[in-house]
Design a protein that fits this description.
single chain, alpha/beta, Lambda Exonuclease, Chain A, six-stranded mixed beta sheet, 8 helices, binds iron/sulfur cluster
Length: about 230
C-alpha cells in the first residue's frame, strides 16, 4: 500500500514533474544534504518537544546560536502553555480508500489540540525569511494535515497557526468543511494521476512559462526536460 506524505503531496501540487523525479524516478537522495537553516530548525523543534515533556536543556546549549536562542525565547514568551488534549510531534497514519487504490496518509504535526468540535494545529517555523515558494508549500502541507486529522475525528473546522518564531509572526488559517472537500478532491486527483499501476503514467504538464518562479527555484532546474 502506498504511503503519501505531506511533502509528496505539496511537491505534486507545485509541479507533477517534481513528484515524478522524487518519488517515481527516485532522484531525491541527491538533494538530501541538510542546510544550516534546516539543522537549526530541527534543533528548535527538538527543544520545544523536549520542553513540552519537561526536559530542559542547559541555557548555554540554547545560547550557542542566536537564531536558536531567539526562536526558543519567543516560544517561551508566547506559547508556553500546557493545554489539555494537546500533543507535540503528533504522528499519524490514516488509511483512505479511493476508487483506484487504498493509501496511507502519513505525517507528523508539531502541535495539535483536540477540542470538542474543532482542532488546532500549530506548525513552528524557524526561518528568517519567507519566500513565495515556502508560503505556498506551508499552506499545502497544512491542507494535507487538516484533511488527514479530519479523518481521525469528526469536527466542524480546523484552526491552523503557522508560527514564525524568528520573525515573531503568527499566521492563522481556518479550514472548514467546504475547504476539506476541496482538499480531498486534490488528494484524490493526485492519487489517481500518480497510481503506479498506470504504467504509461506521464505527469500532467505544467503550464510552462519561461521565467516561471517555481522552475527557477526548483532543484531539478538543471536537467528537467520540462523546464523551458
Ligand atoms: S524545473 Fe520546472 S517543470 Fe521541471 S520539475 Fe522543476 S518546477 Fe517542474
Amino acid at each position: 500500500m502506498r504511503i503519501i506524505s505531506a511533502s509528496s503531496y505539496s511537491d505534486y501540487i507545485l509541479c507533477p514533474l517534481i513528484y515524478s523525479y522524487k518519488y517515481i524516478e527516485n532522484y531525491q537522495d541527491i538533494f538530501s544534504v541538510k542546510s544550516e537553516e534546516i539543522k537549526k530548525g530541527d534543533l528548535i523543534h527538538k527543544l520545544i518537544y523536549n520542553y513540552s515533556r519537561d526536559i530542559i536543556y542547559p541555557e548555554s546549549y540554547i545560547n550557542e546560536d542566536i537564531d536558536v536562542k531567539n526562536a526558543f525565547n519567543y516560544y517561551l514568551e508566547k506559547y508556553d502553555e500546557k493545554l489539555p488534549n494537546t500533543f507535540n510531534e503528533y504522528s499519524f497514519n490514516v488509511g483512505i480508500n479511493t476508487e483506484f487504490e487504498k493509501v496511507i496518509l502519513n505525517g507528523r504535526i508539531d502541535q495539535i489540540t483536540f477540542n470538542d468540535k474543532n482542532i488546532t494545529i500549530i506548525d513552528w517555523k524557524s526561518t528568517n525569511r519567507k519566500t513565495k515558494i515556502s508560503l505556498l508549500t506551508n499552506k499545502l502541507q497544512m491542507d494535507f494535515y487538516s484533511y488527514a486529522v479530519s479523518k481521525i475525528k469528526d469536527i466542524d473546522f480546523i484552526n491552523i497557526k503557522l508560527v514564525y518564531l524568528n520573525l515573531q509572526q503568527e499566521e492563522n488559517i481556518l479550514i472548514d468543511k467546504d475547504k476539506l472537500f476541496e482538499i480531498e478532491k486534490n488528494i484524490f486527483d493526485m492519487i489517481k494521476n500518480t497510481n503506479p499501476d498506470i504504467t504509461n503514467y506521464v505527469p500532467k504538464p505544467l503550464e510552462l512559462v519561461k521565467g516561471k518562479y517555481i522552475c527557477e527555484v526548483c532543484n531539478f532546474y538543471n536537467f528537467c526536460q520540462g523546464y523551458i
